[in-house]
Design brief:
With 222 residues, the chain is of the alpha+beta class. It folds into two domains: 13-90, Glutaredoxin, CATH 3.40.30; 101-205, Glutathione S-transferase Yfyf (Class Pi), Chain A, domain 2, CATH 1.20.1050. Helices cover 49% and strands 8% of the residues. The protein is built from eight helices and four strands. The protein has helices spanning 24-33, 52-57, 76-86, 101-123, 135-159, 170-181, 193-203, 206-215; strands at 13-17, 37-41, 65-68, 71-74. A four-stranded mixed β-sheet has the order 2-1-3-4, with helices on one face. Helix 4 (101-123) packs antiparallel against helix 5.
């Protein structure tokens, strides 16, 4: 796991974001932490993510990008790990050596790989070299996503209400962001009872309401 030294001063972060996208979990982290930060919106409607200026910050042309002490970093799950480790007193990650730490790492990586990747392909057919998915491809992607949600739901049913049991952590923010993405899919994640319970807990947090106000989101607020 990436380890960064604890900052000696109150850090200033800059988050490049687009409302409701993968930058959402990083924005939630910053709000939960209550740290000083600046937001830079990347206007997808103007293809700003492909501009030479932005590609110098993030060569993938995606969000989020988080600038930390003048250095840009990307990948949502990695940024969650970095922020949690830079601010251990916030309790968004179990401390090193805790019996919950391995599970925290496991679920962060699982969510990013088992859900982040197929969601990306679901919403962006050009990533698979096409303008529109065939029914077979859509069914395959839907199957991957629903299989992952079934696994997470079963875990929460036996070990919830949060991903780490009684302890809220950054993993719950990542899971809830992905649940939001399912809101218009054939089977939204909230149709699984334990997932719905987790979503309701996270959506009741002040950081969720504040993010909606800042980003101007309306769907799936509560």
């Amino acid at each position: 796991m990436l380890r960064l030294s604890r900052p000696r001063h109150r850090p200033m972060y800059t988050l490049y974001y687009s409302p409701g996208t993968a930058s959402m979990v990083v924005h939630l982290m910053l709000l939960e932490l209550g740290v000083a930060h600046r937001l830079e919106r990347v206007h997808f409607d103007k293809n700003a993510q492909r501009s030479p200026e932005y590609l110098r910050v993030n060569p993938r042309g995606q969000v989020p990008t988080l600038v930390i002490d003048g250095r840009p970093f990307f990948e949502s799950a990695a940024l969650v790990m970095i922020l949690a480790e830079r601010h251990p007193d916030a309790g968004l990650a179990p401390p090193l050596g805790s019996e919950l730490r391995p599970a925290w790492c496991q679920w962060l990586v699982f969510l990013a790989s088992a859900l982040g990747a197929p969601y990306r392909q679901w919403f962006y057919p050009p990533d698979l070299g096409t303008t529109e998915h065939t029914p077979a491809v859509r069914d395959a992607l839907r199957g991957k996503i629903e299989t992952a949600w079934t696994l997470v739901n079963d875990h929460l049913h036996s070990n919830g209400p949060y991903m780490l049991g009684e302890q809220f952590s950054a993993v719950d923010l990542l899971a809830t962001m992905y649940m939001r993405w399912s809101r218009n899919m054939p089977k939204p994640a909230t149709e699984w009872p334990a997932l719905r319970r987790l979503a309701d807990l996270v959506r009741a947090r002040p950081s969720w309401a504040r993010l909606y106000e800042i980003e101007g989101l309306t769907e799936w607020r509560t």
